[in-house]
TrEMBL record:
Protein's pathway: One-carbon metabolism; tetrahydrofolate interconversion
Function description: Catalyzes the oxidation of 5,10-methylenetetrahydrofolate to 5,10-methenyltetrahydrofolate and then the hydrolysis of 5,10-methenyltetrahydrofolate to 10-formyltetrahydrofolate.
Gene3D superfamilies xrefs: Leucine Dehydrogenase, chain A, domain 1, NAD(P)-binding Rossmann-like Domain
Listed name of the protein: Bifunctional protein FolD
Sites where the protein binds NADP(+): 186-188
Residue ranges occupied by any Tetrahydrofolate dehydrogenase/cyclohydrolase NAD(P)-binding domain in the UniProt entry: 160-301
An annotated Gene Ontology molecular function: methylenetetrahydrofolate dehydrogenase (NADP+) activity
Assigned keywords, A-Z: Amino-acid biosynthesis, Histidine biosynthesis, Hydrolase, Methionine biosynthesis, Multifunctional enzyme, NADP, One-carbon metabolism, Oxidoreductase, Purine biosynthesis
One GO-annotated biological process of the protein: purine nucleotide biosynthetic process
EC number: 1.5.1.5, 3.5.4.9
Catalytic reaction equation(s): (6R)-5,10-methenyltetrahydrofolate + H2O = (6R)-10-formyltetrahydrofolate + H(+); (6R)-5,10-methylene-5,6,7,8-tetrahydrofolate + NADP(+) = (6R)-5,10-methenyltetrahydrofolate + NADPH
A Pfam family hit: THF_DHG_CYH
Amino acid sequence: MTAVDTHFQVDLERLRRAAEQAEPKLLDGKRISQALLEQVCEATELLGERGIVPQLNVVRVGNDPASAIYVRHKIRACENVGIGSSHIHLPPQITQRDLLAKLERLNGDDAVNGILLQLPLSEHHNPNEAIAAIDPQKDVDGFHPGNLGFLMAGHAELEPCTPRGIMTMFRAAGVDFKGKRAVVIGRSMIVGRPMAQMLVRAHATVTICHRYTEELAEHVRNADIIVVATGVPGLIKGEWIKPGAVIADVGMNRSEDGKLCGDVEFDAARERAALITPVPKGVGPMTVATLMENTIRATCAHHNLAIRGGEVYEDVDALCGPLDQ
Ligand SMILES: NC(=O)C1=CN([C@@H]2O[C@H](COP(=O)(O)OP(=O)(O)OC[C@H]3O[C@@H](n4cnc5c(N)ncnc54)[C@H](OP(=O)(O)O)[C@@H]3O)[C@@H](O)[C@H]2O)C=CC1
Ligand SMILES: Nc1nc(=O)c2c([nH]1)NC[C@@H]1CN(c3ccc(C(=O)N[C@@H](CCC(=O)O)C(=O)O)cc3)C=[N+]21
């Protein structure tokens, strides 16, 4: 599918069939993620035949309640697909130095294929330094500066899960990127910026908006593809949506009654859009499934294997074709 699929190639056709089952206008992340996880499961079975069990290690610092929920989702996903997991929960007051030492230990542990440092950390930590301390080959979040650099260069092995999951969902739904106007609202390192890179690589014309963007509504009105990741509920109004636009809503906002909602006025936007992700059951499950996909990729790379079309290949270099988009 893309240049980054050297070690594990997902069958897009199967994801397409899942996308087709969705309700009208719905970009059904839950359904597409299940089709992706099925393929991850098959990959763990193939690896299991060779005595290899992929292993993901999640490191969580402090007691952020949302982080606790997300980590639980990730560990449960590992259990469901046959990936081994462990969860290291560190106290909020752990020093930066001790945190780095923990990460170093995981880097050196040959049984660990993926390391995920759940964000946010505590106030006194330096997250960039901590992320940079993770072995880039185990960086299943794709946040290491080396991996982000490879992403910009067009050939990262491990890419950030949320934007990659959104691209997978778009591709499963047959979204056309070439020459289309894409607007990304939010410029974080974990979502907005890598998202914009992936869209531009797919030949969209990309605008990145943020807090200081003037006339946000005008940018959105012109967009064929809209990705919103701000954490501001209802920021994007339904009436701004160009008829036929495709929308991925990354926002995860919890209202007082405990309900989740995104950054887009869902009902009004759905009226006009061609496709829109719901919250929940949209981008979130794709993020988790892509984390599983990345863990397989890191494991295969570690063992110099490739999994494609239900087969395991040992001579990976011979498989690497020319870079595509
Ligand atoms: N479903 C999933 O899998 C995931 C969901 N999330 C959710 O997505 C949301 C964003 O996450 P993340 O990227 O980490 O968040 P950050 O807080 O790191 O970034 C938010 C971005 O939104 C921009 N922004 C904030 N307010 C406005 C505004 N009024 N107008 C325009 N832009 C604005 C900020 O601009 P500026 O840079 O100028 O401050 C910033 O770039 C959160 O709700 C988070 O919980 C995140 C990751 C995964
Ligand atoms: N190192 C790191 N990597 C991350 O990938 C990372 C992170 N830190 N910090 C926080 C954000 C947020 N994030 C989500 C993952 C899954 C759902 C998810 O599964 N959402 C469900 C609902 C969850 C619920 O019930 O609360 C859904 O949308 O259907 C949401 C958000 C990953 N993040």
